[in-house]
Amino acid sequence: MTFFFIIALLLIITIVIDLTDKIDNMLEYKVSLFESVRYYLNYIPYIISLLAPLFVFISVIFFTSRLTERSEVIAMISGGVNFYRLLLPFMGAAFFIAALLFVNNHFIAPIGNKYLLDFKYKYLDPDEYLTQVNSINLQTPNGELIYVSNFNFNNNTGYKFQLDRFEGKKVDYRLRARSLFYVDSTDQWKVRDYLERKIEDENETLNKGNLMDIDIGLIPEDFRMLVTDREKLTTPELNRQLQREKQKGSKIVQFYQVEKHKRTAIPVSVLILTLIGVSISSKKRRGGIGMNLAFGMLISAVFVLSMNFTETIAENTGASSSLSVWVPNMIFGILALILMLRAQK
Prior knowledge:
The chain has helices at 2-28, 33-69, 72-78, 83-124, 235-248, 253-281, 288-317, 321-342, and strands at residues 132-139, 145-152, 157-167, 170-183, 188-200, 203-214. By secondary structure, the protein is of the alpha+beta class. The radius of gyration is 27 Å and the shape is elongated.
């Protein structure tokens, strides 16, 4: 009950702060009450996904500190209850919460995030949603390299298009066109004012034309490449999109890999922080519950900073995404084992 009380309290505080920050935009765009309520209903899984480990940690410290202050922990251990036996109910609850958080991170929160992002681009920050991108270099599923100088999503048209096909390391086909556009009715790409260059052995053939159908195995959204799109994909969808991004040679592959590992690393951190919380709160200290909570908040701050730091490193330096995301759990896991071994026996 302590956990659910704390999470409800912090959720209310978080929602009030967020509403205060967004209220001007909502009034400016005349957002209806229904859409506002729907926004915050979808906001809850996102916040739980983000802060649940800290909610659990604070709850464990608060509950265990109260038991310690009333000398109940000492009484149980003096009565022959092993410290590790004392850990069992805490770890059992942590496993249950971690399992719920795992399902939330992989399947529930992404569905809510899709609505949050749509709401953001429509009402809160419409300028952030790209209507055009410049200097696009991609690889098609067939292994061809394409370049588009500028792509406009309002009419699904790209300008200064080039496609290169390779035989080994040599270009054996090149297509250049003034523009490339997508026909929704036929799901087909067309190029306008094009020049084809075919190379066979030492022979070269040029072909010019006004309009031609081409198949590049992509859709217009493949050119957008928004990093935030990873947040609105369930894990099966994320895995499929990750493969597409790899095939395209996309720059945001690393961001998708970080997201994939983070969704599992966060539930595991619940178990680690629970172990730390019980270990540091089972001893009586001067300052009582307040001192334990202060110490817990310090550990929480360091944990969150380390998670953000290693994520940033992975996303911007090309470091191993799996290692970077899991390093904080590894470090705090070792700390948890040390604290457990040194805890009151």
